[in-house]
Design a protein that fits this description.
It contains 21 helices and two strands. With 581 residues, it is an all-alpha fold.
């Protein structure tokens, strides 16, 4: 009931739903609207209700189910609303990892967020699995020109082929300790449906005990993520990112004046549960099998800040992990080395390219964070790995001075990662190419003093650097501008003060920071993510560095609660700004 009520309340004026909160436009997203419509119909919303009627009108106006993306069509096919024949098939030998086939295994070519989904999807596509759960799951009324196809399960042979059994075995191999498959709830759901289908259709070949155990653990993980989080920010999310969130919050607290000793338990906890034997840090629960470079770079920054001597062994091991992950171009991907875009996989993937990123290429935002870590360790341009990283960043710069970011929206996030990284390694940021990025940042500051950029900036150049202000994006800009001012860019001072003033005014509205637009990037151009922790952690980083820049002394607050601490420190900054003006 609660889900239905919240869904009804979030319907837009045009009748649809947004994929993520976005204050820069009122347009809804077609795929999000199809899925919301479908949910409401299954939940018992009357067909002729205003909510469903308006949603149907929106979907039809956008081209109907015919215009749904490939990933949406997979779910539609599973319940008989789309023809499996129109789902891109992949050769099943790419899921073999024996003998020669180990060199063509899917894991060799696509990143970890792809293959946990791809294996069960290709099983379901091969079997043309259709689940008949009743007429409420039928949404063919959303077609403009309903296609003619027979929604039925493929006739099964008496025994499964080697390739079918191999895919089931591959699914078992990617189940994680807490029950997920590959760490993602959608991949887990696809896998559970696949295993259930195999057990039902090949009872004489299925390991029922093993399947039942995997199913029980997988379903428990989905229920935990979707329904058992109470009011947590992780309620209903596709994965868990607690180590990333925790380190950002801890670093924000450190920057705004918290006693490092009080933060050591948080760092110790991350080291104990999140850092892996190779020195890399996992993004969150169930990502232990693929520690990533971005998290690892930032945990180094945090450990250096909290207690450099205590964590020196972990810092060195994490740095060694980063060196092992540097791509030939000098940059860093997130989870893998060498997973740049490849024509062969892109050709095979077909329509999948309209729904997801299939590669894990180097990105300037991750590379900037790695440089910030290495700079804190004393690395400079004398180191070959640092030089390669800087050359990569320089080569990716766009004509106007900014960079496209991979994991945050968008060019503002990139500049906010690059400039602190360059200053950390003692690079001369007065070089023309760096100055160009700083000047671009100044040119896009909004009248309210903040910074904002719309998700459309990934596809439409006219949106680059444009959008209503958000606390997170303003903080990212400040992380760059504060470093510029520290390094002699005197003309950025006014912009820095205006941006800080925007943050203060935003905080005072609700007594906390609030991003009205989603600022996290999942798949550029397709999928964006809302990180509730960003609006707090990055803003405290920026405000804390501003306090150091302006010699504003933090208030002692050993007797205060955390919310009061934030209010007190921000009030101190506000008073300082008023005196200056």
């Amino acid at each position: 009931v609660r889900c239905v009520q919240e869904t009804d309340q979030k319907q837009m004026e045009d009748g649809g739903w947004q994929q993520v909160p976005e204050q820069n436009f009122n347009d809804s997203d077609l795929d999000a609207t199809i899925l919301h419509y479908w949910f409401l119909k299954v939940a018992g919303e009357p067909y002729d209700s205003p909510v469903l009627r308006r949603a149907r009108e929106f979907i039809i106006s956008r081209g109907g189910l015919e215009k749904a993306t490939h990933m949406t069509n997979i779910w539609l096919s599973l319940f008989g609303n789309h023809d499996w024949e129109n789902i891109t098939p992949l050769p099943l030998f790419i899921f073999r990892n024996d003998s020669f086939f180990q060199y063509t295994h899917v894991k060799k070519f696509v990143p970890q967020w792809v293959w946990p989904h791809l294996i069960p999807i290709m099983y379901l596509r091969h079997m043309k699995k259709v689940k008949d759960l009743g007429p409420q799951f039928d949404i063919k009324e959303l077609y403009i020109n309903p296609p003619e196809f027979e929604a039925r399960n493929e006739k099964r042979d008496e025994d499964p082929s080697y390739y079918v059994e191999n895919m089931i075995d591959q699914m078992f191999s990617i189940q994680q300790p807490r029950g997920s498959f590959g760490a993602y709830t959608p991949a887990t759901l696809y896998t559970l449906i696949s295993m259930q289908d195999f057990a039902e259709n090949y009872p004489h070949r299925a390991n029922h005990t093993r399947i039942a155990d995997a199913y029980k653990r997988g379903l428990a993980y989905v229920e935990y993520m979707y329904f058992d989080q109470d009011d947590s920010s992780y309620q209903g999310t596709l994965d868990d990112g607690r180590w990333w969130d925790t380190l950002l919050v801890a670093f924000g607290l450190y920057e705004i004046g918290e006693d490092p000793k009080k933060l050591e338990p948080a760092v110790d906890f991350i080291i104990k549960h999140g850092i892996q034997p190779n020195g890399g840090l996992a993004y969150g629960w169930e990502f232990e099998y693929v520690p990533d470079t971005d998290d690892t770079g930032m945990i180094i920054v945090l450990m250096l800040a909290i207690n450099k001597e205590k964590y020196k062994d972990q810092i060195q091991k994490a740095s060694d992990f980063l060196i092992s992950m540097q791509n030939d171009c000098g940059g860093f991907g997130a989870f893998f080395k060498g997973f740049e875009e490849g024509f062969f996989i892109k050709f095979l993937a077909g329509k999948f390219t309209n729904s997801a990123e299939l590669f894990d290429p180097s990105s300037v935002d991750v590379t900037g964070h790695v440089l910030e870590a290495w700079g804190g360790m004393g690395f400079t341009m004398e180191d070959e790995h640092v030089r390669a990283a800087v050359e990569y960043i320089k080569g990716q710069q766009r004509d106007f001075g900014g960079w496209q970011a991979r994991w945050g929206v968008n060019h503002i996030y990139a500049v906010g990662a690059v400039i602190p990284g360059l200053t950390a390694i003692k690079y001369d940021i007065h070089q023309p190419w760096v100055k160009k990025s700083i000047d671009w940042l100044l040119s896009i500051q909004n009248e309210d003093g903040g910074f904002g950029e719309c998700v459309h900036s990934y596809k439409l150049d006219e949106w680059i650097g444009k959008g209503k202000s958000t606390p997170s994006q303003t903080a990212w800009a400040l992380l760059a501008l504060i470093e510029a001012e520290k390094d002699g860019y005197d003309y950025v001072k006014e912009s820095v003060d205006r941006a800080i003033n925007y943050l203060i005014e935003d905080y005072q509205v609700l007594g906390r920071f609030h991003d009205k637009s989603s600022v996290g990037t999942g798949h550029r151009g397709f999928l964006y993510m809302h990180y509730p922790v960003y609006q707090h952690s990055f803003t405290y980083m920026a405000i804390g560095r501003y306090m150091k820049l302006r010699n504003i002394k933090p208030v002692s607050y050993t007797h205060l609660t955390l919310p009061t601490i934030y209010s007190v420190q921000i009030s101190v900054v506000a008073v300082s700004l008023k005196k200056k003006n």
